[in-house]
UniProtKB/TrEMBL annotation:
<comment type="subunit">
    <text>Homodimer. Forms a membrane-associated complex with FtsX.</text>
</comment>
<dbReference type="InterPro" id="IPR003439">
    <property type="entry name" value="ABC_transporter-like_ATP-bd"/>
</dbReference>
<dbReference type="InterPro" id="IPR025662">
    <property type="entry name" value="Sigma_54_int_dom_ATP-bd_1"/>
</dbReference>
<protein>
    <recommendedName>
        <fullName>Cell division ATP-binding protein FtsE</fullName>
    </recommendedName>
</protein>
<dbReference type="InterPro" id="IPR003593">
    <property type="entry name" value="AAA+_ATPase"/>
</dbReference>
<comment type="similarity">
    <text>Belongs to the ABC transporter superfamily.</text>
</comment>
<keyword id="KW-0547">Nucleotide-binding</keyword>
<keyword id="KW-0132">Cell division</keyword>
<comment type="function">
    <text>Part of the ABC transporter FtsEX involved in cellular division. Important for assembly or stability of the septal ring.</text>
</comment>
<dbReference type="InterPro" id="IPR027417">
    <property type="entry name" value="P-loop_NTPase"/>
</dbReference>
<dbReference type="InterPro" id="IPR005286">
    <property type="entry name" value="Cell_div_FtsE"/>
</dbReference>
<dbReference type="GO" id="GO:0005524">
    <property type="term" value="F:ATP binding"/>
</dbReference>
<dbReference type="InterPro" id="IPR015854">
    <property type="entry name" value="ABC_transpr_LolD-like"/>
</dbReference>
<dbReference type="Pfam" id="PF00005">
    <property type="entry name" value="ABC_tran"/>
</dbReference>
<keyword id="KW-0472">Membrane</keyword>
<dbReference type="GO" id="GO:0051301">
    <property type="term" value="P:cell division"/>
</dbReference>
<keyword id="KW-0067">ATP-binding</keyword>
Length: 225
């Protein structure tokens, strides 16, 4: 589903973050990207989603080389991804419902159909009773769950989350991981960048570890608290 073939990455005037790394993420995988701060975890997620371009090699999404895609095709590629960032990137002048509805309205889905899908997404993350709440009135964990609802409302086949439990306590972190696992259980591929793997609980996962410009794939394992 996602294939990196000899991918190298360096930002202008910086050292390489990775050199000629290759790995595959299969449909339905639950993958953790680990590595120290600054190792390049966020960059790896951005490469997958076509937000950054690699300095070498090829990235294939469903066997399509994304570097060969026309600029106009990038928004369609992005729709396959649900993106969840550590700082939520919620719109604080819109309520919960409106935040989740935004990706749908960009795709031209409005009215009853949009309302039905927004409420289904809010229900999945346990925020159906907060649809009128402004994000600022929600707890950190609730804001992150709202960001997840917004990420999944377009029914993406891949959810990419960058430190989704950052700043949350243990209980809220566990809820977020269990929520992401629930989407994975129904077939969504989930890729999470995380420096603190201890929060993963008893979720089976594969790890891609970034260190010294290389990425090491480790087999499936079960995380322990
Ligand atoms: N747009 C950019 N332009 C130049 N350098 C960048 C850019 N984005 C990130 N970097 C640099 O690339 C390196 C890797 O950053 P990245 O955010 O991918 O690491 P990370 O592993 O996610 O770190 P953290 O755990 O601290 O979030 C850092 O040194 C960062 O300063």
């Amino acid at each position: 589903m996602i294939a990196f073939n000899n991918v190298s990455m360096r930002y202008p005037n910086s050292a390489h973050l990775f050199r000629q790394v290759s790995f595959n993420i299969e449909k339905g995988d639950f993958v953790l990207i680990t590595g120290q701060s600054g190792a390049g975890k966020s960059t790896l997620l951005k490469l997958m989603a076509g937000i950054e371009a690699p300095s070498g090699g090829h990235i294939l999404i469903n066997e399509q080389d994304i570097s060969q895609l026309h600029q106009n095709a990038i928004p369609y590629l992005r729709r396959r991804f649900g993106l969840v960032f550590q700082d939520h990137k919620l719109l604080y002048d819109r309520n919960s419902f409106e935040n989740v509805a935004l990706p749908l309205s960009i795709q031209g889905i409005t009215g009853e159909e949009a309302a039905r899908r927004v409420r289904a997404a809010l229900d999945k993350v346990g925020l159906l009773n907060k649809e009128k709440a402004m994000p600022i009135t929600l707890s950190g964990g609730e804001q992150q769950r709202l960001a997840i609802a917004r990420a999944v409302v377009s029914r993406p086949s891949i959810v990419i989350a960058d430190e989704p439990t950052g700043g949350l306590d243990r209980v809220a972190s566990l809820e977020i991981m269990q929520l992401l696992k629930a989407f994975n259980d129904v077939g969504v591929t989930v890729v999470i960048a995380m420096h603190d793997v201890a929060q993963v609980s008893t979720i089976a996962y594969r790890t891609l570890h970034i260190d010294q410009q290389t990425i090491t794939a480790m087999p499936a394992q079960v995380g322990m608290l």
